[in-house]
Design brief:
By secondary structure, the protein is mainly alpha-helical. It has one domain. Helices cover 82% and strands 0% of the residues. It is built from 20 helices and no strands. The chain is globular, with a radius of gyration of 22 Å. The termini are far apart. The mean pLDDT is 86.
Length: 450
């Protein structure tokens, strides 16, 4: 029975808050570490390869990325949801999803290879693309990550992810120091997924759990696929409208332009760990809140929107003002054309942050079809705008297309009566209404004390 008299204020001293705060802290520590290392290593690699080779590497990554959502099957949040609801079915759920992802990975590699061959990609480009796509095989064991997330034990994921990332980063630095060719950087890209798979296996075993106990169950597979197929399609759509810009830039312009664009995009997307880490960590709490009270459930969602909107705007403003300085400092004058792209693209983070959070709402409400429809809207707008804007405005046009399409996808949630209230909640967060109320309230209380 719902209890709408539940206190929605955050109790910072409660055990529940401490648990989720500790879980989020582990995720943030790992993501901050990775972001800092990725910044320096990424800059080193970009400077070493130069715009042309760096552009080719990112083109191969983007091309492969158009298909990798098939491997994941859109099941991440659904697996967490099912594990929270039925922890006793752990081995059945993990074993089933693992088997499905292996099949999805094989399908992905075949699709990537055939498509690249049919469009007559040069042999070297084809080799880069296939090597990078092969990483999906090792990513299948990523179900271990969802298992620890369902138990709010992110520290085990952090150990595996940090270790694999650190090893791969060292290898990239060594490649630069020893003047190795571009092909080796693509190989390391895939090796990182292999190292991560070994890490997940190790931490799972460390908790006295065995992969050999995983069991595939056809009935479970059908149930999971029934819930996840809209997310699979959504993942394909997301991949297209997140990666198609670099693929289209390569076809309309030159490889070096992909390098300029990729440099700016890397700086913007480096911040996307913020909504992912927070939303993934508090997702179990949001699911549990719905079972307790609708008021508590919506309150937690609003707080999530408020925090993520404020964070995105807080990042975008200084980056906009300092874009020239940032590009010159980090990448050097050779990458100067990336500066205006950075200025435009960074504001797509506002829609991205809120889009990640609202996706959690759609999953908790089992409205995965709406998730697909809104990303489809974003993809269509992005492809059309890239087609018209890139030939006229170059890479700046691609950045504008991304900003508009990301925003359209996120806020199209307001077109449906069932989810219109989420649109209102997100608009409140962008306008910082609750933050302003808290500041005014604090000011009144402060004056009253005087």
């Amino acid at each position: 029975m719902s209890n709408d008299n539940v206190n929605t204020k955050i109790n910072f001293g409660s055990e529940t808050f401490k648990r989720y705060f500790a879980n989020t802290s582990w995720m943030f520590a790992e993501k901050i570490f990775r972001t800092l290392v990725a910044f320096f290593v990424g800059i080193l690699v970009a400077r070493y390869l130069g715009p042309d080779k760096y552009g080719l590497l990112n083109y191969a990554i983007s091309f492969a990325g158009l298909f990798t959502s098939f491997a994941n099957l859109g099941m991440d949040s659904i697996v967490i949801r099912e594990l929270v609801k039925s922890p006793a079915s752990r081995n059945e759920i993990l074993g089933t999803v693992f088997r499905l992802r292996i099949l999805g990975s094989v399908t992905t590699i075949i699709l990537v290879s055939v498509t690249a061959f049919l469009i007559n990609e040069p042999t070297f480009n084809l080799l880069l693309i296939v090597i990078i796509a092969s990483a999906t095989i090792f990513q299948s064991i990523g179900v271990v990550e969802q298992f620890f997330q369902s138990r709010v034990e992110a520290k085990f994921n952090v150990i595996a992810q940090s270790t694999s990332f650190f090893i791969a980063s060292i290898l990239k630095v060594l490649l630069v120091l020893f003047n190795q060719p571009l092909l080796y950087f693509a190989i390391v890209q895939t090796l990182e997924s292999l190292f991560l798979a070994i890490g997940y296996y190790s931490v799972y075993r460390k908790n006295n759990l065995k992969l050999s106990e995983w069991r595939y169950k056809r009935e479970t597979a059908l149930v999971l696929l029934k819930d996840s197929w809209p997310l699979v399609l959504s993942g394909v759509v997301i991949a297209i409208y997140m990666k198609i810009d670099q693929v289209m830039i390569k076809n309309f312009m030159e490889t070096k332009d992909v390098g300029y664009y990729a440099a700016a995009v890397k700086l913007c997307e480096a911040w996307y760990f913020v909504p992912m880490a927070i939303s993934t960590s508090v997702f179990p709490a949001i699911v549990n809140a719905k079972q307790t009270s609708e008021k508590l459930y919506l309150s937690r969602l609003q707080k999530l929107y408020d925090f993520l909107a404020a964070a995105a705007i807080g990042i975008a403003i200084p980056v906009t003002l300092l874009s020239d300085f940032i590009i010159n400092l980090l990448f050097g004058p050779e990458f100067k054309p990336a500066s205006p792209v950075l200025t435009i693209y960074i504001w797509a983070g506002v829609a991205t942050f809120l889009g990640v959070a609202s996706s959690q709402y759609l999953i908790s409400e089992n409205l995965t079809k709406l998730s697909f429809y809104r990303t489809l809207i974003g993809m269509i707008i992005n492809v059309i705008m890239n087609f018209f804007l890139i030939p006229i405005y170059g890479i700046n046009g691609a950045a504008v297309a991304t900003l508009i399409s990301y925003s359209a996808a996120t806020f199209s949630i307001g077109l449906n009566k069932k989810t219109y209230n989420q649109f209102i909640m997100m608009m409140k967060s962008i306008l910082l209404i609750n933050l302003i109320k808290e500041i005014i309230k604090y000011g009144i209380n402060f004056k009253s004390k005087d």
